[in-house]
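Q: I have 353 residues here and want to know how they pack in 3D. Can you give me a structure?
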Amino acid sequence: MIGRRLSIARRAAGLSLRDLEAKIDKKVSAQAISKYERDEMMPGSDVLTSLARALGVSESYLLGQSDLTLEAIEFRKNRLTSRKEEAAVEAAVLSAVERYLEVEEFLGAASFAWSPPQGAPFPVREQADAEAAAGRLRAAWNLGIDPIPNLAEFLEEKGIKVISLPLSDKVSGLMCRARRSAGGDVPVIVVNQRDTGERQRFTLAHELAHHILDAPDGVSGEKLMHRFASAFLMPADTLWQEVGKNRSSLSLGELFELKAVFKVSVQAITYRLKDLRIIGDALYRKLFDEFERLGWRSPPYDEPGKIAVERPERFRRLCFRAAAEGAVSDSKAAELLGITVRELDRQMEQPPG
């Protein structure tokens, strides 16, 4: 039966039942598609082909079976989103995670096992707890106090599936757990492909906090997640070494030098300096007034010194490997990656431009 996968693919495409009816030139009605999704009817082969083409998936995908579900979904939002938008994002994430696990199974490649550090989830109730939790995690992962160059790749090495999707500007990212009947739960972090590198890094650290902290719900909990993310990306000891412990003035030039080191926005650095009481409220407000004047505090957050976007590449590498080793056909590898066979051949045979 195709009900679950058809529903996922339709929602991932952001289509209503009537939208899909129109996209397949009304070969069947929206009511019939609804019955397919409830597994009350099966489409004929020509309708199945039309549905797959309209949704950008293969017929084999629609006919496949999977018991994968997403749980504990938490969105990191800039503004409120509609339930329809969230459903489309959830469907796209489920599809991406399903494909990721599928290529691992084709290769017999064991997933990196997610092993939270001892004591996790860390209970946090105040800012000092979040600061301490970031230090404990860095110590458990032998990170010292140095900045992390490629955060997405590092988290994948630790067993977290990191997925980059083209989300709307209303969603920076989300975290969830993928649950399957066989095998353990898989932690997932999704970042907005369209965000700047510095925003993506903060989102990754923030969503990591949701996986390893036990914090209150609501606004207070989110503030603790923010504090953890800041401390994880910008350890206090490193900032004290670079900046000192008490500053009465700070130039934009120095802030941008720090940005190059920590790979976060100058606004995140300024906020962190205030949290650590390296700068006072007056200097903090002065700097943020300047950021506002320069237009860096609103979309498209066009702050100079752009940081390279985070590119989680493990899934793509596995697809290339599966195709090269003959574990899957070229067409299957292309389907998993969501590209054409011609584009797959180009990416595998030519160096990046």
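Q: Anything worth noting?
A: The chain has a mean pLDDT of 90. Strands lie at 69-77, 122-123, 161-165, 171-179, 186-192, 213-214.
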